[in-house]
C-alpha cells in the first residue's frame, strides 16, 4: 500500500506545455542558414507585442507572407538550432483563423 502511495505522489520530470490565449499575430517567412551554400525558410508568428515564435505545424492555407491572424498555441520550450531552424521557440498551433 505504501508503495502505491509513493508512486502516485511522485512528480514528473516533464515540463507542462503552456497554453496561451488567442493572440493577434502576423505570419512571416524567416530565412536561416542551413549549411554551406544552403538557405532555408521557416514560418514565424510575430505577435503584436513583438515576440516571435517558429510555427512548425502552420496549416497550408496560412502559408502567406504578412497575413494577419488570430491564433492559439502551445509553447514547447524547445528551439530549432544550428542548421535546422531560426533559433526561435517552437510552438504547436491549436487553432488559427484569419483576422
Q: What is the element layout, followed by pairings?
A:
Elements: H1 2-9, E1 18-19, E2 23-35, E3 38-47, E4 52-55, E5 67-79, E6 89-98
Parallel strand pairs: 4-6
Antiparallel strand pairs: 1-5, 2-3, 2-5, 3-4, 5-6
Relevant terms:
single chain; 99 residues; mainly beta; OB fold (Dihydrolipoamide Acetyltransferase, E2P); 5-stranded mixed beta barrel; 1 helix; 6 strands; 8% helix; 53% strand; disordered N terminus
Are there runs of 5+ residues with pLDDT below 50, and where? Answer: 1-15
At the first level of CATH, the class is Mainly Beta
Query: Biggest sheet, in brief?
Result: 5 strands, mixed, barrel
Task: Bin the helical content.
Answer: under 10%
Overview of the structural elements:
With 99 residues, this protein is mainly β. The chain has a single domain (19-98), classed as OB fold (Dihydrolipoamide Acetyltransferase, E2P). The chain is built from one helix and six strands; from the N terminus they run αββββββ. It has one helix spanning 2-9; strands spanning 18-19, 23-35, 38-47, 52-55, 67-79, 89-98. A five-stranded mixed beta barrel has the order 2-3-4-6-5. It is globular.
Amino acid at each position: 500500500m505504501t508503495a502505491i502511495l509513493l508512486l502516485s505522489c511522485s512528480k514528473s520530470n516533464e515540463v507542462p506545455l503552456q497554453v496561451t490565449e488567442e493572440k493577434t499575430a502576423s505570419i512571416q517567412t524567416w530565412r536561416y542558414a542551413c549549411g554551406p551554400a544552403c538557405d532555408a525558410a521557416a514560418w514565424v508568428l510575430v505577435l503584436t507585442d513583438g515576440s516571435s515564435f517558429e510555427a512548425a505545424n502552420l496549416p497550408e492555407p496560412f502559408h502567406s507572407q504578412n497575413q494577419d491572424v488570430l491564433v492559439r498555441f502551445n509553447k514547447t520550450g524547445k528551439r530549432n538550432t544550428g542548421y535546422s531552424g531560426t533559433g526561435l521557440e517552437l510552438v504547436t498551433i491549436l487553432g488559427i483563423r484569419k483576422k
